[in-house]
Amino acid sequence: MAAIVFLALIMSFSATSAVTNISTDEHALLSLKTPITNWSSSVTHVCNWTGVICNRHGRVAALNLSNMGLLGTIPQSMGNLSFLVSLDLSKNNFSGSIPKEMAHLRRIKEINLNFNDFSGELPTIIDA
Ligand SMILES: *[C@@H]1O[C@H](CO)[C@@H](O)[C@H](O)[C@H]1NC(C)=O
Ligand SMILES: *[C@@H]1O[C@H](CO)[C@@H](O)[C@H](O)[C@H]1NC(C)=O
Ligand SMILES: *[C@@H]1O[C@H](CO)[C@@H](O)[C@H](O)[C@H]1NC(C)=O
Ligand SMILES: *[C@@H]1O[C@H](CO)[C@@H](O)[C@H](O)[C@H]1NC(C)=O
Ligand SMILES: *[C@@H]1O[C@H](CO)[C@@H](O)[C@H](O)[C@H]1NC(C)=O
Ligand SMILES: *[C@@H]1O[C@H](CO)[C@@H](O)[C@H](O)[C@H]1NC(C)=O
Predict the structure, then answer these.
(1) What homologous superfamily is domain 2-118 in, according to CATH?
(2) In what residue span(s) does the Leucine-rich repeat-containing N-terminal plant-type domain sit (predicted)?
(3) Which ligand is in closest contact with the Cα of 20?
């Protein structure tokens, strides 16, 4: 009995942290304000969204929105995608500056922002 209660406690605890982390990733992606229709938690799980690849823990590991005709600026909250390894936003019409919060992406290995209208400097994202 005690073991079952303990197991239930662990399970609810890990479920809670998973939800927190997934919604962190989800908020970060939604802050990009893309018009991609299935970028909505009411449609499907964030790991199923167009251009999104998750790791086995359900965290966003790769984002590829290359050549999707996207406009707007990159929000600071993109720096919250702490498990992001690969980011490809090339061939869009993103503008403005790259937020310095992107430097928080310490797992990032590959980043492609070519063919946009960015201004300013790229923060030191890759320090490896
Ligand atoms: C969830 O996020 C918290 C804080 O943001 C972190 O400490 C924790 O390790 C994360 N959990 C997983 C399973 O990634
Ligand atoms: C992801 O998409 C597949 C195929 O469209 C679907 O079968 C699955 O239920 C979806 N998963 C989640 C968690 O939404
Ligand atoms: C999301 O929409 C794209 C087209 O915009 C489609 O190719 C893709 O299969 C859709 N994915 C899901 C999980 O519905
Ligand atoms: C992103 O997708 C485009 C088009 O599908 C592809 O050419 C490109 O290699 C992809 N980028 C990455 C980093 O995988
Ligand atoms: C995401 O990042 C923003 C700006 O850097 C921050 O203010 C916010 O607290 C973060 N949100 C989450 C859910 O982690
Ligand atoms: C996107 O940028 C290209 C090249 O800078 C420009 O020709 C095109 O008109 C822009 N498209 C939109 C929708 O702003």
Answers:
(1) Ribonuclease Inhibitor (3.80.10.10)
(2) 23-55
(3) 1
Phi, psi (deg, nearest 5) at residue 102: -60, -20
Pocket test for ligand 1, best of 21, 77, 80, 81 (most atoms within 8 A of CB): 21
The pairing of strands 52-54 and 60-64 is: antiparallel
Ligand nearest, relative to CA of residue 19: 1
**pLDDT computed for residue 77 by the predictor:** 95
C-alpha–C-alpha distance, residues 7 and 119, integer Å: 52
Q: Which residues of the chain have pLDDT under 50?
A: 4-17, 127-128
* Residue 52 alpha carbon to ligand 3 centre in Å: 11
- Residue spans per domain, the chain: 2-118
Chain segment 25-54, per-residue pLDDT in tens? 999 999 999 999 889 888 888 999 999 999
